[in-house]
Amino acid sequence: MSVSRTLLALLESTPRHGYDLKRAHDDLFRADRPLAYGQVYATLARLLKNGLVTAEGTAAGEGPDRKLYAITDAGVSDIDAWLTSPEKPSEYLQNTLYTKVVLALLSDRNADQVLDAQRREHLTAMRQYTRRKESGDLADQLICDHALFHLEADLRWLDLTAARLAELREQVAR
């Protein structure tokens, strides 16, 4: 995820200070790893330098006055371009797990154990996402569904690979 573009898009509705941007980001995206304040302010400094935001005075808070940031026309254009361009699907063609299976076969190790250990790891993750989904709001449900669908696809690949392991062993031996 692009932190700079996310913060930039959060500024479209109203000027905000860094603290408010961090809180909005963490609330909206349920970040398992919330943004660090240093990352927020470093990102805002880059956006300011690149002309995508302006500093528009300060807002009084409980502590020192906070600088307000507002999106520029160039920032709006950047967000428009980013939101309308599709993301490339993740590349799975050079997968670490596939590499481990092939190397296990090459070294006469038990490739079934490699697949079984990965299957257990995937099932544990699926249980965690399912629990989180059941107790979460709509944002959590959608995020967890995305993760669960990817894990289900991985499990199908694990089963297919296990079924073809003898054939793969022969090819690797050649």
UniProtKB/TrEMBL annotation:
Organism name: Nakamurella flava
Cross-referenced Gene3D superfamilies: Winged helix-like DNA-binding domain superfamily/Winged helix DNA-binding domain
InterPro entries in the record: Tscrpt_reg_PadR_N, WH-like_DNA-bd_sf, WH_DNA-bd_sf
Pfam families (alphabetical): PadR (PF03551)
Residues annotated as domain Transcription regulator PadR N-terminal: 7-77
Name of the molecule in the record: Helix-turn-helix transcriptional regulator
